User: What shape does this take?
Amino acid sequence: MSVEVTKLKNGMTVVLNPMPHLETVALGTWIKAGSRNEDENEHGIAHFLEHMAFKGTKKRTSRQIVEAIEDVGGDINAATSIESTSYFTRLLGDDINLGMDVLHDILENSTFEEAEIEREKHVILQEIGAANDVPDDLVFDNFQDTAFDGQPIGRPILGTPETVKSFGKDDLNNYLGKHYRGPNMVLSASGKIDCDKLLTKAEELYSGFPSSLADEPVASNYIGGESFTKRDNAETQLVIGFEGRAYHARDFYASQLLSMILGGGMSSRLFQEVREKHGLCYSIYSFHWGFSDSGIFGVHAATETEDIPKLMPIILDELKRAAQDIDKHEVDRARAQIRAGLMMSMESPSSRATQLARQIMLFGRPVTNEELMDRLTAISTERITDLAGRLFTQSNPTIAAVGSVDKVMKQAEIADYLGSQVTNKTA
Amino acid sequence: MSVEVTKLKNGMTVVLNPMPHLETVALGTWIKAGSRNEDENEHGIAHFLEHMAFKGTKKRTSRQIVEAIEDVGGDINAATSIESTSYFTRLLGDDINLGMDVLHDILENSTFEEAEIEREKHVILQEIGAANDVPDDLVFDNFQDTAFDGQPIGRPILGTPETVKSFGKDDLNNYLGKHYRGPNMVLSASGKIDCDKLLTKAEELYSGFPSSLADEPVASNYIGGESFTKRDNAETQLVIGFEGRAYHARDFYASQLLSMILGGGMSSRLFQEVREKHGLCYSIYSFHWGFSDSGIFGVHAATETEDIPKLMPIILDELKRAAQDIDKHEVDRARAQIRAGLMMSMESPSSRATQLARQIMLFGRPVTNEELMDRLTAISTERITDLAGRLFTQSNPTIAAVGSVDKVMKQAEIADYLGSQVTNKTA
Assistant: This one.
């Protein structure tokens, strides 16, 4: 593995990972700003801007943008998340200059024509509608909104029909100007690349972005709570969660291991207990999401109405049991799973480019697999049980459900069951 | 690219693609039988068997099956489709023998204990419920069922609650005995592999599967029709389709190109017209699925109620226009997209193992990228317009909708609009 990290004059980072045996390349520009960087009146604009980047520049119409890439067989796409926005393309290695030109063009030269804005609003309203129709999209949106009640980090990324309808050209330029700045941007490429040429090209293209620092988002404050949405569905979707650990927090890696042990694979405790022993769910897993200043530890499950009263105590019992006793063998397995996952992603240019861009945004540098594995190896079973004890009793539970919600345990019942030591907070 | 194809004594094919620069391996066993190979009283058993393969063997409990793989960081999974079933694992290359042992064990030595059967029925009932709750899963199930009315190829892969509840150990052994036979099976591995060792091991492990041929499924008969399911959703899901072309049919590759041109990417006609020009949909694309003796050419769209009357004629106009005039530039782009896609999948062990297994099942041999590209290059624009003319007028339309279905055009209206030359068929 050879990774080259360079800072451009305006503070933008370029991270390059040549994979000499490949013929293709994965290339993208990441911006360290997403939905949580929106002001109150900007809810949904990070995502709206990501859409509008494809709607025409000073040099290309929207059709010419996608034709440029697809004419050579590539594809181009973009994604908005809570803390970042990314624009990426996959191409044959010989077409990398074209990919560089197009990616830069849509970021710096977009014109945001009024007619295009109005049309794209209609597309996003449909995207919001579709997400609302899918029960497990909806339950996660409601969950996040409840966990971080009233805060940008909790709001649905797509915005609401009302906020989306309110946006104009100036709003787009304003958000772009505030967040698309050199120190906030990372260009990442993996695959068939010539590092020197790519660097020269990057310096040439991206020098127009300002070198001034962007404002930090407002600090997040995990609150917890409950959200129940009645739907006449076959299955009831549930997410139960707690405050997790930020990327830089001491317990971040221990939380990742705990999530793997509790519900990370088919041999995990929740899968074995809930699905294999009791046959109660098709989908059951846990997850740990780190943010820059907070985190979420959660469990997702879907089950039919009559099984809800049986399912919930089984899940909560597993949370309690994790605080009492974890076997060394389970920790070793979780580490092996993470290690193999790292090696698999080393072999995929898309996974590599994404992983390196995220490491630059989070830690300011690439993190080697060895360093990551050393951190994981240093974590004892006692530290994980200790963490589990704190995670599930020292933060207010969040419960979100979509479906037949009457039999779902309320927040207070979950807190009681777990012996929670907190009293309710409010925003 | 070096690919080794070997037939074992019992007729099973082993296809191996060493990728010497990798540390990991993708390994799987494919069975050329899926839901369409089920008898009337077996609806859902191919998928049920695929689940039951993980529920215990003569040598391992269900927990030991997944622990064996996950202890070394790998993962194991399986999938059932209309014409095939697959069991696959991703591992570090050094663990390949373990992967081979476990994959074989679950295929030949599963015990199908009654208690496990009953528990797994409950899991699958939940899987059926969850699929029914997701509007675009449901619309595709209904579409396929309507296109091939009353035939195994059209039935939902998961089965119905009634059929799933009816299965016992003998049913599982019966389906397995009929279809899991050497000539119907392919072992495919890509990545860090030693071909000689792997072949010896495969011959050793798989010799117990019979060499007799499996019965062919009943021939399929595309019928077409309409399926409307009212749901109180934000978006109405639509699939409009026609009879496509079988894998071996002369027009198979032309159909693939036509689908790419019509709705395969962001520069495609449907995306440009429906989303970019009119802003009517978030999701709009076309697809062409080949089966061994039939095919489906279809368009998927989702839109809000008020836009349905505007959307449907735009889609149908594009189908008509494809029969009149296609630009050489569009065909070149479609070919470039397919070519780049092939090169990207050559670099991923999972994609390669899957692609090779499918080629063995469909064509009896690996198909090189050069051969595939030669076939595509030989197709003129005239052949594609000619095909479009026949596709959309010489087979009955199928229309499936989930949502606000009142304003959706009926089958007869679609046929009229397109100037269809067929009269209704029945099963």
Q: What stands out?
A: The longest strand of chain B covers residues 295-303. The CA atoms of residues 29 and 147 of chain B lie 30 Å apart. The radius of gyration of chain B is 23 Å.
